[in-house]
Write a structure and sequence with these properties.
Elements lengths: L7 E5 L7 H15 L3 E6 L3 E6 L2 H10 L18 H14 L8 H6 L5 E3 L6 H9 L12 H8 L1 H33 L5 H8 L4 E2 L10 E2 L4 H10 L2 H31 L7 H12 L12 H37 L4 H5 L1 H35 L4 H29 L6 E2 L2 E2 L1 E2 L3 E2 L9 H48 L7 H11 L7 H17 L8 H23 L14 H23 L2 H11 L1 H4 L11 H5 E4 L19 E4 L11 H31 L5 H22 L5
Helix pairs in contact: 2-11, 3-11, 5-6, 6-7, 7-9, 7-10, 7-19, 8-9, 10-20, 10-24, 12-14, 12-15, 14-15, 14-16, 15-18, 15-20, 16-19, 18-19, 18-20, 20-24
């Protein structure tokens, strides 16, 4: 039965006899033969070599690690180890077999001696079950068979799907709360006193939004924009931001419990990765000496400096996007189309968001190459250490790529642009953008909405379509030959392995980053869902809908469109957990800043409890926010405009208004400005301390490891000690 099963297939081009590539290939295969590997050759348009490891290799593994897979084994005579472990060991030996020329398989693949290596998708019961019950769109709301995924793809992939399923499940709760807050915002769409005042302010003439071409405008022209702003920026948003900070903590604490339960069932809770790697090194080569731990402060300093340079480049790209928006705004206001002139600001924001998405797509590829180069500089000791280093770097780069533009809109837009008569200009020519009188939060909402929708639709469609088209094209190249054979040469017996090896070869290639890419995509999405959620309450809903499809998309890709991944053993999701915890803390800081700085929540509250008619006149029949808009606008004398930027004739010789708290005589900040500034700061400190305290209490309240798991370990230790005692003192028992 074992004779027709092959652990791995190596694919090579048909090289000329006696050529350098052919000699190198022969040397490598000879080394495998010396280790007792069985090798089978099949010739088609390429050369296929099936390799099967000898049984003693797996016996050594079982002996060295006292068979940690005992829970997964069938109690048959040979006590076979699971297929996933078998593939992992064979992959390790193939990767670490050295030819007499001191070349490994990695070097030979670079030199095109071998073109591909992959384990086979076998026609086994587990695979049929997964194809039928997991990798189908119709199972979109069904629970995932994590145990079966583990038996076929190994622990690392199973833990990814367990984590993604758990994240999606808890996102459902956040999505419902976010939707309720958003719907509540829509119901008060027209009832806000602030938006009513803006809609009725037809006699409030505002300063032009750009130089020369732009006219003075009435505040009431932006009535709809003000209503939309209030729909997002209300008291419910503050509560939702607090809720999401707690949700992020509870999600991670519950995941730690879930993970502890899962890996205990797999008998991997105390599994040691170093021991496993050393055991495989010794099985491969008995003379192997382990690589020692090393640390170089010089290397670390160089890497740190290069990381800072890269971050500076990414922030520079965000500045370029700002400049684009400023210039686009100036061009749109001078356009011949009336619609573009009127909606210049919104159009600049929307096209800026699309451009931001394009930079994300391009920089993702650049970031990967830079992060890999930096990892090579560090010379990590093991593969998992290299993976951890790479993860931290690529996440840092991706974070700045995705969020630097959003950080500008949230915290700098409209705050660094000066005031009429003394604007801050790019290259002394273009004015920086201003916020709308009702706040900047709508700009942040538009930017996040566009990026999340584009990321989730275009990226997901590409993620599925590219492998699907590539697979179809590869299949098409093989088909004509097969048809001729069926017509003319039916009597020729075909090797049963040939069809299986060919069909596996036609599938898309997978590499060590295949699963990493999925994790990175989800963690960036998690950042979007938590960090600026105060400005975009629909983020959890979009993420939830996306993930329902993402789970099945990944499943279909792995089962039908890609070659089988080399299974990896793991007992947690690795350094991603620390990354997620860091995002949880950033979410508290980010949402606190959005409410304190971006949103109008604090200025409105300060006005309500200090300057409103309710406080000054003791009038009960009046809405406490009456007069807020007039209070938040400053006065500007037309004669104080810069000489070369004077706008067209004013409708009246009255003073013009702009959004700020400044004096009418010297344009210095008013007392109200400093009052609001102090209130913003106080709120920020209070919000962050309360949210972080609640996070700590939630982390303490939900234990990382369930009691049932602890009790299971206690019983196991107890029974083991009793067995030892019986062995030592049989007469006393």
């Amino acid at each position: 039965q074992d004779d027709d099963k092959w652990d791995f297939v190596l694919v090579s081009g048909i090289h000329e006899a006696g050529s350098e590539k052919e000699i190198k290939r022969k040397k490598f295969l000879d080394e495998l033969s010396k280790k007792g590997f069985a090798i089978k050759k099949i010739e088609d348009k390429k050369l296929f070599y099936g390799v099967r490891a000898p049984k003693q290799i797996f016996r050594k593994y079982q002996q060295l690690l006292r068979n940690p897979d005992s829970g997964q084994q069938n109690p048959d005579a040979h006590r076979d180890i699971p297929v996933t472990t078998r593939i992992r060991i064979v992959n390790f030996i193939l990767q670490n077999t050295v030819t007499p020329d001191l070349e490994k398989l990695h070097d030979l693949m670079k030199k095109k001696v071998f073109e591909a290596m992959f384990p086979l998708h076998e026609k086994e019961e587990v695979r049929e079950f997964l194809e039928e019950k997991w990798a189908r769109w119709r199972d979109i709301f069904c629970q995932q068979p994590i145990e079966k995924i583990r038996c076929y793809f190994g622990e690392k992939v199973a833990l990814y799907f367990a984590w993604l399923g758990w994240y999606t499940y808890l996102l459902g709760i956040a999505a419902v709360v976010g939707l309720v807050i958003f719907v509540a915002g829509i119901t008060v769409f027209s009832s806000s006193q602030v938006s009513k005042e803006i809609c009725e302010a037809s006699d409030t003439i505002m300063c032009p939004l750009c130089d020369q071409q732009c006219p003075f405008w009435r505040l009431s022209d932006t009535c709809t924009y003000a209503k939309v702003t209030h729909m997002i920026d209300n008291e419910g948003t503050v509560l939702f931001a607090m809720f999401m900070a707690i949700w992020a903590t509870v999600f991670l604490e519950l995941w730690k419990r879930q993970r502890a339960t899962v890996v205990t069932n797999w008998d991997l809770y105390g599994w040691d990765e170093d021991e496993e790697e050393l055991a495989m090194e010794l099985i491969n080569n008995l003379q192997h000496e382990p690589r020692k731990y090393q640390h170089s402060y010089f290397r670390s300093t160089i890497v740190l400096l290069l990381v800072l340079v890269m971050i500076a480049v990414l922030i520079g790209i965000a500045h370029a996007l700002v400049i684009y928006r400023v210039i686009a705004m100036a061009l749109f206001t001078q356009s011949n189309f009336r619609f573009l002139r009127e909606q210049a600001n919104t159009m600049a924001v929307m096209t800026g968001a699309v451009l931001h998405y394009i930079t994300i797509v391009i920089m993702t590829k650049v970031n990967r190459h830079v992060a890999l180069y930096l990892c090579d500089l560090e010379k990590p000791r093991t593969f998992s250490q290299r993976e951890n280093n790479f993860t931290v770097k690529i996440f840092t780069f991706q974070f700045f790529t995705n969020f630097s533009s959003l950080i500008y809109i949230a915290f700098f837009l409209g705050r660094i642009n000066g005031h009429p008569g003394n604007y801050v200009r790019i290259a002394g020519k273009w004015r920086l953008e201003e916020c709308h009188p009702s706040g900047c939060i709508t700009d942040l909402f538009i930017q996040m909405g566009i990026i999340m929708l584009l990321k989730q639709t275009i990226s997901s469609v590409m993620e599925y379509l590219v492998p699907w088209i590539a697979h179809k094209l590869r299949k098409k190249r093989q088909h004509p030959k097969k048809r001729r054979m069926m017509l003319g040469e039916e009597e020729e017996a075909e090797d049963p392995c040939k069809r299986q090896w060919l069909s596996n070869y036609q599938l898309n290639e997978v590499n060590i980053f295949s699963l990493f890419n999925e994790f990175l995509e989800m963690v960036i999405q998690y950042s979007f869902t938590t960090i600026f959620v105060a400005a975009f309450p629909l983020a959890p809903l979009l993420a939830f809908c996306n993930n329902l499809f993402e789970i099945r998309l990944d499943a279909i890709k792995m089962m039908r469109l890609c070659r089988r991944m080399v299974p990896r053993k793991a007992n947690d999701i690795g350094i991603w957990l620390q990354v997620l915890e860091a995002i949880g803390i950033l979410a508290v800081i980010g949402n606190g800043l959005v409410i304190a700085i971006t949103s109008n929540f604090i200025p409105v509250q300060v006005y309500k409890y200090t300057y409103s008619p309710c406080m000054t006149e003791n009038s009960t029949g009046v809405d406490c926010l009456t007069g807020y808009i007039n209070h938040s606008l400053s006065v500007f004398r037309i004669q104080d405009f810069e000489p070369d930027t004077k706008p067209g004739p004013a409708p009246m010789r009255l003073c013009r208004r702009y959004r700020d708290y400044r004096n009418a005589d010297d344009y210095g900040y008013t007392v109200q400005f400093w009052h609001i500034f102090a209130a913003r700061l106080a709120f920020l400190i209070l919000f962050e301390h309360v949210a972080l305290c609640i996070k700590l209490i939630a982390a303490w309240y939900v234990p990382d490891v369930p009691q049932s798991v602890k009790n299971e370990f206690l019983d196991r230790k107890h029974s083991n000690l009793r067995k030892e005692l019986r062995w030592v003192m049989p007469q006393e028992v």
